[in-house]
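Entry for zinc ion complex. Fields follow.
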Amino acid sequence: MSRSDLYHIWGIKGYDILPGTKYGARGTVFRVAPQDRLIKCPDCGSRNVTRKGACVRRLLASQVGSHEKITLEASIPIVHCKDCRARKMIDPAIALPKKSYTKGFARDVLVLLREMSVLSVARFLQVSWGMISSILTDWLEKHFSRRGLRNLRRIAIDETSVGKGHRYVTIVMDLDTGDPVFVGDGKAERALDPFWKELGPRRARKIRCVAMDMGGAYQAAVRKNLPWASIVFDRFHVVKLANERIDRLRRRLFAMKDFEGRELLKGSRFLLLKNPENLDASRGEPGRLRRLLDLNSPLTTMYILKEDLRRFWEMDSREKAEEAAREFIGCARASGVPEIVSLGSVIERHMEGILNHYGDPVSSGPLEGLNNKVKALVRRAYGYRNMHVFKLLVMAARVIDPYRLRPFDTS
Ligand SMILES: [Zn+2]
C-alpha cells in the first residue's frame, strides 16, 4: 500500500505507510509516519527543528468499506524548536489532541448519526457507546455552546422538565429568530443569573418585551434586570390555566354526582375543552355538551366564561380588552364557584401583563414547540443524565432531528 492509497482510501494526507501491517482478531493495524512536510514546530510553525524521539499514537481510522476495524499506529515525532525553544510533539494533523480516532473517523460517525442512534453506530463500528456519544458532544459543543446574545429584542422565558426526576431547566428564546439562546439550571429566579451576567447592561437595554407564563418565578428577575421591558403573559398560558381550572371543577363535580350525572360527566373532558366551532356533530357532540351544561350550572358558567376569555385577544384595542377583562373578573367573582373565583383573581392579578399583548403581540408558543422537541430528545435517552450534554441538546434542538438525533451538515 502506498502513500496515495492512504490518501484515496482514508483521506489521510501527509503520511507514509511503513512496512509491518498487522492483521489480527482486533482488525487491521497499519503503521504510518508523518512526511517531512508535517515536521515543524506546533507553536510557531518553524521548520528549524531537531527531532527528539517520537510518541506512538493508536488512532481508529475510517472503516467505511471495510468489514473490520482499521487502526493507524502513528509514530509522531517530538521536536525541539530552535526558534521558539518549544519542545513538543508535532501537530499530527489527522487527529485532535488526546483523541483515539482520526478526524475522518469522527466525520464518519456524524454522518452515520444522521441515520442511526448512538447505540447502533457504536455497535456497527464496534466501539463503545461513550466514544460515539463523546464525538456527538464535541460536535454539539463546537456549534452550540455559545449563542450570540446580541440583537435580542423580544424574548420568551419558560421552564421545561428534564426526565422523570423533576429536574428543571429554564430556557430563554429569541422570539425574532426562534433560537434558544440560554439554558439555565432549575426553574427559580436564580436560574437566570448567568444569563443576565452574560447579557450585560448594554445589550439588556435593547430587550423590549418578555413573554412568560404567570407562574411568577421569572417576573421578579425580569423586573429587576429589565425594568424597561414589558412583560407579556401570553394567550397560550392563560388559556391553558383556564382549561386546568375547568378540569379541576369537572373532577370535583364528578366526585359529588349521582350515578346518572356521573355517566354524563364521563368522557366530558374533551367536550368542555374543545372550542365550540370544532365540535363534531356526526358524533353527537353538540347535543352531549348541551345536556351536560343543562345538568350543571357551575359547569355552564365556567364554560361560558372560558369562551369569554378567548375574546380578550380579539378586541380592536387595549381599552376594549380591558373592559372585557373587568367584566370577566366581575362575573367570575359573582359565580361563587371556587374554581372560577380563583381563575378570576389570577386574571386580575396578571391583567397588566395579559393586556400588554396589545402593545407587543408576542407569545411563548414557539418556545412551547421547542419544549416538545426537547422532550422527544429526552425520551431518546441520549445523554440527558449528563446535564451539560442535555443543555447542548436544547440549544441544538432546532437544527437536530430529535427522533434520530440527526445532526445537520457538519462542514
Ligand atoms: Zn517554534
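NOTE: The two ends are 29 Å apart (CA to CA).
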